[in-house]
Amino acid sequence: MNATDLLNRIHRSYFRRLRSREYRRLLQGMYDEPVARAWLSWEAARKLMSLPALALLLLVLWYFATVPDARLTAERNLAAQANVTRPVEHDSPVYAMASALATRGWNLIQCDGVPVLYAPPYEAYRVLLRYTFKMDEEAGGCVLPITKRMHMDLLFFPAEESVSREIKSHIHWEDVEQRQPSWMDAEGPVETFDLGEVQGYHVCGRMTVPQQALVRRVLGLKGGDDHVALIESRLAQCSDSRSYWRTLRLLKDCGPEAIPVIERALETGRYRSRGWLMEVLFHMPGDESWRILEACYQQPETRRLFTTVLSENPPDPHWKHAYLRMIEGDPSETYVTVGLDAAAAFAWQESLPAIARVKAAPQSIGQYVNACKAERAIEGNPLSSDLDEAACNIRVMDEFRRMRNASLDLGQPGCEHIIQCGDAEGAVLTAINIAATQAEGPFSSADNTGIALLLRLPRETVLSTLRHLAAATKDERSRSEACEILDAVLTEGATIRM
Known about the structure:
Blueprint: H1 3-13, H2 21-31, H3 34-48, H4 51-66, H5 70-82, H6 95-101, E1 107-111, E2 116-119, E3 122-139, E4 142-158, E5 191-198, E6 201-207, H7 209-219, H8 227-237, H9 241-248, H10 259-268, H11 274-282, H12 287-298, H13 300-311, H14 320-329, H15 333-346, H16 352-360, H17 365-378, H18 385-404, H19 413-419, H20 424-439, H21 449-454, H22 459-472, H23 476-491
Antiparallel strand pairs: 1-3, 2-3, 3-4, 4-6, 5-6
């Protein structure tokens, strides 16, 4: 601060009433003397800062000098802890089990070679696994990628120690970092679990419920805390769909023991989970799961959902009555096709009357073709799988033809096989299916491979089938397609370019 600034501040704050030039000249002369200059500086500072502001400044300086930021200290400790060199003893008796857990991004960072007194008076081998990830955190107005870590901490107590079930409450766990990434928030809090026994060791762990489920599954642990009860308790704590669904999926690996929990969850139906719970029960065949699924089938509010789940699973003869009902009374084309496939797979003779009714009034051309295939399979005269393969090849080649703007070619292997297969009905059904598929796309009648094939097949069989579809098909769009195909065949309007 120069002399002029100091004199101006003194003038404004302390000597406001003295405005004469003579007094300012006096102060200028005093400022040239060292002692007077020091006094003037002190007076200026004292007058410019009030006593409360000075006290607040001293308090802030004292706080930063004596009370360090606890969060910053914790972060530094955890960062230093992450760089600690830990023993990974490859000759440890638990190393094989520890390395089996090092999957899905988890890295093994500690495996004791000798037992240590972690829970006096019991010794144990410690296994520590780490998952490292990056999170965006705001610091100083900027969003920066910060490296975080979470851990699975396990202790393997030798079985000869006769470890009690209450040992988990006496373990001295190391305070390792447990920061979950945002997509793992649904896993819930970190807890201590009695995981049971395996290969002569009693295992305890500190982790989340889904993590302990992973450890149990990988190591094949038996006993310990009730796994199903832990999942049900965690389900009750879930307050959002994400955490609920993530926990619910753990029931898949629990086997029949989870059926009572699944039944209770079906009753509540939280977060629209009934369909997935039925899917789990379909993979637990047995009287108890069938009883619950049958109840879902009999209830009008869940029957549709049950039918959807049933259609997404391989055919099961246990649900014969459900498949037959799909053929007889379900208005959905998808479900009728599922029922037809099941009837054909198990050759159910009692389905033939219902299949005949589907053929008499099909929902679409595809449904009619599927009904004919199912009927023939039940009667012991199935269509050759070579026809389906030929149709698939034709669709692929036609797609390439469309992209290259090439002309129609009946000389390709798939077409020749359909024309010369010797099964007139099978060939006509396959060609009609191809024609209907291409009629929905960019192909004109002249470029429709299915129509070109129909012109090369027995005319009487072709016309009788197309006339029936043009008259009896329920769906207006499919009926229109059948009429177009019939007109093209009758008038021979398709131009075949060899």
